[in-house]
Amino acid sequence: MKQSDLSMRHVLEDIASMDELPVYSPVPMRVHPVGIEAADAFSVEWILRHGMAEPNSRDTRANMGLFVAPGYPPAASAESVKAITCYFQWGLLWDDYLETLMPDLSKVVLAASEANRVFLCPSEDPIPADDVWLNSLRDLRNMLDDCLTQAGTQLVLPEHLVWVGGEVWKCALQLRPELPDVDEFLRMRWFKSGPGILAAMTGPACGYTLTAEEYHMPLMRAFTRAVYAPLYLYNDVLSMAKELPKGQSDMNIVSALARTHDLSPAEAFTETFKLIERMMMVIEPLQRKLLQHPSPAVVQYAKDLPLWMPATLAFTSTSARYLETVGSDGVEPLRLPKITFVDTPIYWDPTDHTPPPYPEISWWWSLLDD
């Protein structure tokens, strides 16, 4: 294990030695009537039926139902919640599959291109009968077509392309000798995480659809990113435990902050939590502006989207995907402490709306005073 990974591991070991790790969550969690267990069981049965996971494997214990069921209000149909849970189960496993194709970027690009073709094209387009990934993705497209409006599907399709492209982007950065600074990392991370798919699915699953103009207006984009960006950076913190044994810890917000600002690993972890909370502080002011919009769909979206925050934080903090880490080269896997959620910021003053020094996200703050 290289020296930088050893230093990061020492910090993670310090965190793991804590009884509890408090994390700020500004929104209380509610659960869709379909329930966490039912949504998860449906998605697990689905991935097993398509041959994407082995029975009783870690993949079947990801608890994707906890990610999706609390992210939707009661207005969402049960069919939508279940289909979207399957979509994100597929996404996690697809992410792992692409890792098996590395370091051959040409294989990654070809796989991503086929995935985009199948998701976009009508079901009559041929795909190999033995391709697990493409056949399951075709099934997903059909499931989503059955439960989302046609207009809603048209918002989802380009976001799928964005996410698949983001996966390729990350793979390319992993192969590039020069590691990304914070701003470049943030540019890639939004695309690679795929939160735009969640955003695009939110309205259609609940019976309303944003127009393309509403969905892409700057205030809406800033609000959407402010809701999701803290969540995938929090995911970075917990993902570090599974990335270290694979030698992938350089492609992480903690490492990017350490490189950019010449920080120790311990300082970089603290700065990561500061940045996460700093982002969260603009959500409520941006939401207030959207609640004054004349479009009922925009107003409802502003109310619904923050439900993803407690859902994602709870999922990331408890999923076997992040907690059942695998050691390598004789290195013991890390075990993380119990995560407790608090309703008061820990690292950032909520009255401080100073924008961070990263152009990729600092423009959100410029909309607070418009």
Characterize the structure shown.
- With 370 residues, this protein is an all-alpha fold.
- It folds into 2 domains: 1-27 and 212-369, Orthogonal Bundle (Farnesyl Diphosphate Synthase); 31-209, Orthogonal Bundle (Farnesyl Diphosphate Synthase).
- Helices cover 64% and strands 3% of the residues.
- A two-stranded parallel ribbon has the order 1-2.
- α7 packs across α8 (182-193), α11 packs antiparallel against α14 (283-291) and α14 (283-291) packs antiparallel against α15.
- It is globular, with a radius of gyration of 20 Å.
Give the fraction of residues assigned to helices: 55-70%
CATH architecture of the largest domain: Orthogonal Bundle
**N- and C-termini, Cα separation:** 49 Å
If you compute it from the alpha carbons, what radius of gyration comes out, rounded to the nearest whole angstrom?
Answer: 20 Å
Average pLDDT number: 91
The percentage of residues in β strands lies in under 5%
CATH topology of the largest domain, anyone?
A: Farnesyl Diphosphate Synthase
Total domain count: 2
- Tell me the series of helices and strands, N- to C-terminal: HEHHHHHHHHHHHHHHHHEH
| Poorly predicted regions | none
What is the CATH H-level superfamily of the largest domain? Farnesyl Diphosphate Synthase
